[in-house]
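> tool_call: predict_assembly(chains=two)
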Amino acid sequence: MSELRFTKDHEWLLIDGDTATVGITDYAQGQLGDIVFVEVPEKGKQLKAGADAAVVESVKAASEVYAPIAGEVTEGNTALPDAPETVNSDPQGAGWFFKMTIADQNEVKALMDQNAYDKFVAELS
Amino acid sequence: MDHATDLSLKSTPLDALHRSLGGKMVPFAGYAMPVNYPIGVLKEHLHTRAKAGLFDVSHMGQGELTGSDPAAALEALIPGDVKALAPGRIRYSTLLNAEGGIIDDLMITKVDDGRLFLIVNAACKDGDYAHIAAALDGKVKVGRFEDRALLALQGPDAAKVLPRFVPGCEAMAFMSSKVDRFKLPSGKGVDVRLFRSGYTGEDGWEISIPGEDGEAVAKVLLDQPEVEPIGLGARDSLRLEAGLCLYGSDIDATTTPVEANLNWIIGKRRRAEGGFPGAEKILAQLKDGPDKLRVGIKPLGRAPARAHTEIQDTNNQPLGEITSGGFGPSVNGPVAMGYVAATHAGTKTQVNLIVRGQSMPAEVADLPFTPHRYFKGK
């Protein structure tokens, strides 16, 4: 069964067994504004939790997307660099950044669920 | 509390209007200013190039020099020929320090022989006025208009919109200025000073308005179908594509007008006579060429290169750095400007940009990235 988890850096993870799909949340894309450049990691890249994993840039600013957990990249969303605006229009769907293995399930358990993340975002504004 | 409601920030006369329009307020040069509105930076930028955009630039410093021959007094501080300015004409120039470095850039309008109207940068205004006042001998006085609003209406449709309220203004020449009356729908007339200039590369005006009338004028302009409100984000991307300098980024106290590729602001008579701060250095640079030069930089991939990105030659030797860079919505790709060694300033010179530790190909490009479309007269 798949479940959603979130980080305080506004990334979402769709957990499916021992793999996760990673992207940025609707709140994050709204804060960034019009996204004009995306760089996703290549398959096979080893990620440590908190390491730079991807790049997302809006008209005004560049931001890093951090690896929310440790693991190995199994696929980058190669459609994104040619259509970075997808991150604005469908951040939690077609705008996914990369898929990765889950090295340690305990790292997933430490992340927020939907309710906790919604509360976290509500407190920001 | 969001920091744009920080009470230490100043607000412009249009603050309530920005918030009612959904402007995202950020601190800028001590003011709470809208960085964008709900349609976002990209659409605001493209709308300005397609139709017309309205910008609140009331944070900028509006002031005047009055008295006996203010042109002569100002010429002691800048390299421009102010004495040759005809009444109603505007000139772009720079305040210089003793080393020829740029203290600020400014717009100078000659009202008449006894009065110059100045527009300076928000972040520099206190320093500028103090600098100017310290150089005056008592025959010329500096005044500030802290209570006035300043709007910019920019874009190809600006000349359709503004004449609805200021009939005849469409005939004004580029870089000219006059006082006129803006007719509000209520029938009330507002005394405004118009400047046919701007910071986008497009035709348009800057409009100086008594602060209490600023919101009424802005609302009337925003009611026009061609006009959208535009924030600081698109103002920056528009001026970058237009190759226009941002003070504090592309020009500062360590760069001279020659290094900044602004030779055109140094008047012919001033080149012959000197007599401005740093003249010895600047005239030598004009004669022999500067060591570094501001150029356009076009990244050849899709990744934008931001300010302070290192520029290297194709042998990985440092050449300089990017001073402004980002995504150009009208170019539909990354655009930048920066300083390179003068040996590498030729158009199409291949360079590398060090972005996130990786070397990315780019080339020196002619400025502007998008052609200027200033009013050329009919």
